[in-house]
Amino acid sequence: MTVSEIGEPGLLERVFPRLPESRATVVGPGDDAAVLAVGGGRVVATTDVLVEGRHFRQDWSSPRDVGRKAAAQNLADVAAMGGVGTALLIGLALPGDTELAWVEAFYDGVREECGPVGAGVVGGDLVRSEHGITIAVTALGSMDGREPVTRGGAKPGDVVAIAGRVGWSAAGLAVLSRGFRTPRALVDAHRFPSVPYAAGPVAAELGATAMTDVSDGLVADLRSIAVASGVSIEITSDVLEVTPQMRDAAAALGVDPVRWLLDGGEDHALIATFPGKIELPEPWLTLGRVVRGRGVYVNGQPSDDQGFDHFR
Amino acid sequence: MTVSEIGEPGLLERVFPRLPESRATVVGPGDDAAVLAVGGGRVVATTDVLVEGRHFRQDWSSPRDVGRKAAAQNLADVAAMGGVGTALLIGLALPGDTELAWVEAFYDGVREECGPVGAGVVGGDLVRSEHGITIAVTALGSMDGREPVTRGGAKPGDVVAIAGRVGWSAAGLAVLSRGFRTPRALVDAHRFPSVPYAAGPVAAELGATAMTDVSDGLVADLRSIAVASGVSIEITSDVLEVTPQMRDAAAALGVDPVRWLLDGGEDHALIATFPGKIELPEPWLTLGRVVRGRGVYVNGQPSDDQGFDHFR
């Protein structure tokens, strides 16, 4: 049996029981990030690997774009726990013929993305590979006294809300895949996301009961909250915006733009559940509600989106 | 200019000024590990990337060996700061035809190596690659009130000492490279190191002034202490043991086994400098002394070993 035959969920099922437990664990593997108790404080830790050809293409993305994306998707995981990113460690495996200018621009992108968050790069490893660029980023963050928000705490009666945009990256990818380079806003959104970092800690302070970021798709990631919390989630799609550019691109490509909103990943919006009586500040926008049961319902219909399998 | 043309030191010189700084940094990039201030405590963080074909070969190492090695070299970096490893995050990029059994045995190896240290695996990422296995491990550790020991604090008059063995991995690699599978002890030492983890925190408590682990070679890593500290280091090689197996293997291969001791990497012994009057407990063994000047001297002769360049 190979990893592509068993697929990602099956693989995780076989791997998780083998993992040694850490005495410092507050939140263990399986959520957006782990949380560890360290010296009276709590540190958030998460890691992502980006493989050239699968997670980025050099003909579609500049090295600066790749650096921003690599930093952003890890810093988004920290925000999705209610943390603030403080430090990155970056492992790079590079073919020997990689241009020095590529590496420099990659780190420039990392620095740009870290700036508003206040995170730094504190370590890394540079090694040679034979085939393509592989990037491994670990982000560390601090909770500053907030309780970590996992995917597992949503309760019937909670409100479901979103901060940030969805569908943009998927629309950009669709455009690029057909050989176009415009609309620029969509293509740029695929190159690196625009993450509402501050909304994560704000949600934790407001008492969010569950949270994650939209990396695999809105419905797929809502489902991860529904499954982890043992609840059902009902949303309406009409509060999500199909922008004029999205509508035009969808018309040109002959697709339904609402699928981008519901199934498109990699925009790293934050989605969270809150006790029903909390007034949500911007940019949080109410999407629906948590009810008893299971599954995700969109406009009253059950959704069977299964999300993205990294091995299939 | 490509990365293999500029080489590792040149690449680092170009990358370091581009790295954003973290407000939490106690020890920044360039040492064995970073140290961050988190909630009143200090967390050690380090990352290493292993590329199939460069850092391990499936025909020489079992997946369990690879798991042990990947965990060990990161936990050794934590020990070399005087820390104790608490948590690993592991990113794996795997070809789709990787056997599930390989992945399971890899994590079994990680678990075995973590056991005595008490570290756990708290997170990770599993993605598909097109070419070969790439492994990115980040280790986090705690200082438990000890001061981190960098490479930069050695002072003239200090004693230079070593804990753990050197030359074993290089001897094993030499044997494997010639197509042999024995002596088993040397070959096994190449497959995964035997790291004296506890000696790191002990050294920090004793007041070690500088410390690192032997990943590139004894002389090369002593040189990294000499350069960072602005001192010269003098050692004698006769306190290092050429084992009977090493002597026999060297004779069979027609090489000088002392080169394995001085230049062989990947055994992850710890080397440290201590104020001259401290009585060193086992397994610490005195190798030489720190003097004014620059460079590393072995048995009175200047050594020009340049260490291992990951890009050349």
TrEMBL record, chains A, B:
<feature type="binding site">
    <location>
        <position position="125"/>
    </location>
    <ligand>
        <name>Mg(2+) 1</name>
    </ligand>
</feature>
<comment type="pathway">
    <text>Cofactor biosynthesis; thiamine diphosphate biosynthesis; thiamine diphosphate from thiamine phosphate: step 1/1.</text>
</comment>
<feature type="binding site">
    <location>
        <position position="48"/>
    </location>
    <ligand>
        <name>Mg(2+) 1</name>
    </ligand>
</feature>
<comment type="function">
    <text>Catalyzes the ATP-dependent phosphorylation of thiamine-monophosphate (TMP) to form thiamine-pyrophosphate (TPP), the active form of vitamin B1.</text>
</comment>
<comment type="similarity">
    <text>Belongs to the thiamine-monophosphate kinase family.</text>
</comment>
<feature type="binding site">
    <location>
        <position position="216"/>
    </location>
    <ligand>
        <name>Mg(2+) 5</name>
    </ligand>
</feature>
<feature type="binding site">
    <location>
        <position position="32"/>
    </location>
    <ligand>
        <name>Mg(2+) 4</name>
    </ligand>
</feature>
<feature type="binding site">
    <location>
        <position position="215"/>
    </location>
    <ligand>
        <name>ATP</name>
    </ligand>
</feature>
<dbReference type="Pfam" id="PF02769">
    <property type="entry name" value="AIRS_C"/>
</dbReference>
<feature type="binding site">
    <location>
        <position position="151"/>
    </location>
    <ligand>
        <name>ATP</name>
    </ligand>
</feature>
<dbReference type="InterPro" id="IPR016188">
    <property type="entry name" value="PurM-like_N"/>
</dbReference>
<dbReference type="InterPro" id="IPR006283">
    <property type="entry name" value="ThiL-like"/>
</dbReference>
<dbReference type="InterPro" id="IPR010918">
    <property type="entry name" value="PurM-like_C_dom"/>
</dbReference>
<keyword id="KW-0479">Metal-binding</keyword>
<dbReference type="InterPro" id="IPR036676">
    <property type="entry name" value="PurM-like_C_sf"/>
</dbReference>
<feature type="domain" description="PurM-like N-terminal">
    <location>
        <begin position="30"/>
        <end position="142"/>
    </location>
</feature>
<feature type="binding site">
    <location>
        <position position="77"/>
    </location>
    <ligand>
        <name>Mg(2+) 3</name>
    </ligand>
</feature>
<feature type="binding site">
    <location>
        <begin position="124"/>
        <end position="125"/>
    </location>
    <ligand>
        <name>ATP</name>
    </ligand>
</feature>
<feature type="binding site">
    <location>
        <position position="47"/>
    </location>
    <ligand>
        <name>Mg(2+) 1</name>
    </ligand>
</feature>
<dbReference type="Pfam" id="PF00586">
    <property type="entry name" value="AIRS"/>
</dbReference>
<feature type="binding site">
    <location>
        <position position="32"/>
    </location>
    <ligand>
        <name>Mg(2+) 3</name>
    </ligand>
</feature>
<feature type="binding site">
    <location>
        <position position="308"/>
    </location>
    <ligand>
        <name>substrate</name>
    </ligand>
</feature>
<keyword id="KW-0418">Kinase</keyword>
<feature type="binding site">
    <location>
        <position position="213"/>
    </location>
    <ligand>
        <name>Mg(2+) 3</name>
    </ligand>
</feature>
<feature type="binding site">
    <location>
        <position position="48"/>
    </location>
    <ligand>
        <name>Mg(2+) 2</name>
    </ligand>
</feature>
<keyword id="KW-0784">Thiamine biosynthesis</keyword>
<protein>
    <recommendedName>
        <fullName>Thiamine-monophosphate kinase</fullName>
        <ecNumber>2.7.4.16</ecNumber>
    </recommendedName>
</protein>
<keyword id="KW-0067">ATP-binding</keyword>
<keyword id="KW-0547">Nucleotide-binding</keyword>
<feature type="binding site">
    <location>
        <position position="77"/>
    </location>
    <ligand>
        <name>Mg(2+) 2</name>
    </ligand>
</feature>
<feature type="binding site">
    <location>
        <position position="107"/>
    </location>
    <ligand>
        <name>ATP</name>
    </ligand>
</feature>
<keyword id="KW-0808">Transferase</keyword>
<keyword id="KW-0460">Magnesium</keyword>
<feature type="domain" description="PurM-like C-terminal">
    <location>
        <begin position="155"/>
        <end position="248"/>
    </location>
</feature>
<dbReference type="GO" id="GO:0016301">
    <property type="term" value="F:kinase activity"/>
</dbReference>
<feature type="binding site">
    <location>
        <position position="46"/>
    </location>
    <ligand>
        <name>Mg(2+) 4</name>
    </ligand>
</feature>
<feature type="binding site">
    <location>
        <position position="266"/>
    </location>
    <ligand>
        <name>substrate</name>
    </ligand>
</feature>
<feature type="binding site">
    <location>
        <position position="55"/>
    </location>
    <ligand>
        <name>substrate</name>
    </ligand>
</feature>
<dbReference type="InterPro" id="IPR036921">
    <property type="entry name" value="PurM-like_N_sf"/>
</dbReference>
<feature type="binding site">
    <location>
        <position position="77"/>
    </location>
    <ligand>
        <name>Mg(2+) 4</name>
    </ligand>
</feature>
